[in-house]
Amino acid sequence: MGSLFRSEEMALCQLFLQSEAAYACVSELGELGLVQFRDLNPVVNAFQRKFVNEVRRCDEMERKLRYLEKEIKKDGIPMLDTGESPEAPQPREMIDLEATFEKLENELREVNQNAEALKRNFLELTELKHILRKTQVFFDEQEGGLNHTTESMTRALITDEVRTAGASMGPVQLGFMEKSIDREDYLPCFVAGVILREKLPAFERMLWRACRGNVFLRQAMIESPLEDPTNGDQVYKSVFIIFFQGDQLKTRVKKICEGFRATLYPCPEAPADRREMAMGVMTRIEDLNTVLGQTQDHRHRVLVAAAKNLKNWFVKVRKIKAIYHTLNLFNLDVTQKCLIAECWVPLLDIETIQLALRRGTERSGSSVPPILNRMQTFENPPTYNRTNKFTKAFQALIDAYGVASYREMNPAPYTIITFPFLFAVMFGDLGHGAIMALFGLWMIRKEKGLAAQKTDNEIWNIFFAGRYIIFLMGAFSMYTGLIYNDIFSKSLNIFGSHWHLSYNKSTVWNNNFLQLSPATSDYEGTPYPFGLDPIWQVATSNKIVFQNAYKMKISIIFGVLHMIFGVIMSWHNHTYFRNRLSLIYEFIPQLVFLLVLFFYMVLLMFIKWNRYEATNAFPMTEACAPSILITFIDMVLFKESKPPGKDCHVYMFWGQSFFQTVFVLIALACIPVMLLGKPIKIMQARKLANEEVQPITGGSSDAEVGGMPNGGGGGHHDEEEMSEIFIHQGIHTIEYVLGSVSHTASYLRLWALSLAHAQLAEVLWTMVLSLGLNKEGWLGGIFLTVVFAFWAVLTVGILVLMEGLSAFLHTLRLHWVEFQSKFYMGQGYAFAPFSFDSIIENGSAAAGETE
Questions:
Q1: Residues ≥6 apart with Cβ < 8 Å to 186
Q2: Does the pTM exceed 0.85?
């Protein structure tokens, strides 16, 4: 339990490993995850280290595995993940892995290239098939003389000389002229092709402008999408046929087609040739479909076989890479046969680490055992707090503020209780707390299955990581909801109200405002057994007034106790690090300052609640109860208080004025002690050290009066100038004195958010759900169902999620600023051990982000 309240004791060790056993030993340490290695080659370039070639080989294997993974995911093939972590392979197994990955990559690339070539050929044949089908309509129209517009447009393309020379030609021919005319003098006057549908309007405009209107374009859409062989996307295309006259226009048209990436295909003029070509195209398409299916089956078989081992391969390669990367941090001895490493290890785990090193040596077959020596150092060790699945989330909240200095008090175990409790004070509602607790409990019960899913949804991962926090916040909110007697803005009358209505029915119906006095028989004289009396639910006039006073006071009470507990925590730090100066000149005046001012104010609240009651005789009735706030302000200003009413006592107890004056004077006297005490003592210690004949070497002035050389809370002062020490202490004192006032007021957020949450719940009930409850009949049932669904969505979305997040952030601020600032330095650095689990987890997360 010691490591729960403080970080683990760490030791800096030197490790000697034989070269042939180094790989196996580091592998065992990676499985253990308890050793943080230091870089003994900080000035050596990463490309000049001993094992850089092995790291490069691992990078190349990872690249091939990522390629396989991308192809497997593209085909939607599930990858087998048993959840087991195979051991790191031996160095000689790298060659087999490299050969396997090389074979798989080459085979897959060859299959992909063949498939792409086949798909490209298939696309061309498919486009040609559509061209032959669509253009057949154009030729049929020409031959049958059905389209006079086409004929007239075609005649318009023929020059006057040709028209005069061929006056006796008859109908216009789309291909060659009459057989009597030489074919070499009259080239084909049309081209056919396929173009992307979105490019067609621009293509048509460009043809018209570039050819000055001397072309005739016909186009038809291909209804079914075609697959792009390069990226596999579905694209929509259109068939076009362009009629023109002359070589110059032909060249121009082809260049425009090339610019718009249109594909041109040969299209015979003769119907018999077109039919023959179409039959040949269909035959080739059928053959290609068969070959493509066989290619895809082969590719699928290769990927399915790879998917069974891909996760294990990733783990093995990452472990090999991590081992060689760690070995690059080591130094070689003079003989080049021994590797030397320095590492931080937890003191309690040295024996476990030695056993792991022994197992690694036995695996490698080395006869020389490894040597682990503990070193003396004045460096600050890393901070290592052991956590489990329950405490991990709470520790993460603390580390987000700052990693604890080495061996200073860890706030996490106390936060396990105080965090959900302060949250519940703001979020107190039995219904809303039950929703939150059930959600957290569901995640806890299903945590194994949910953790195995490994989703990339960041919001869900945050919720799941904090499942125990959510459950505790919900459970504590249920408790405070019972205290407030509040469930969805309504009350529970479990034990029966201890207030009774003494008015008759006509009085109640004819008066908007009626008052029940606790001094009469309206009140039984004993409070409600648990929480607020449900009678306050119907007290619409002064319910908020009463709850404001109640919640405001408990907020100050909890806040002052929380801050005093934080100051007491600093006592544990000072005594552990033997920091006598901070103990005397910081802890004592800080605690006294809080006690004589703010804890005294808390005592006044309890005295007021105890001494003043409605059933007491005058002047100890509720009308003569003084205001705590006014009393505290008068006390700080040395001002004489005024009686709250006629013939009422000014003070609540005998000698109150005298004690208040003494308390304020003591608080004022604490300020110069905090401001000057520690710097003056440090200055005196330095002066005495300078007067010594034998100079003091090592250790600081704090060590002379009881400091530790590497203490997390003591700090070093012998390097600082006295002016800096005075300035630092002055800032610290001003911050504490002013912060005590502002932090106390900051805890009023407990009251403010609790009031806002209760009012929002009441508004939702009054303005939404009550509308459905007031309807009658079967229509009312339908209307209530709709209204209830709307109310439930608003309740979960606004009151549970948004209000819950707001209360969570306010609670986090109260812990980080108001509580931890009293004792927590947070100037350490986290223990980052060499662990295969964290390396593989981070590698998987990084791979998911790159996708």
A1: 176, 177
A2: no
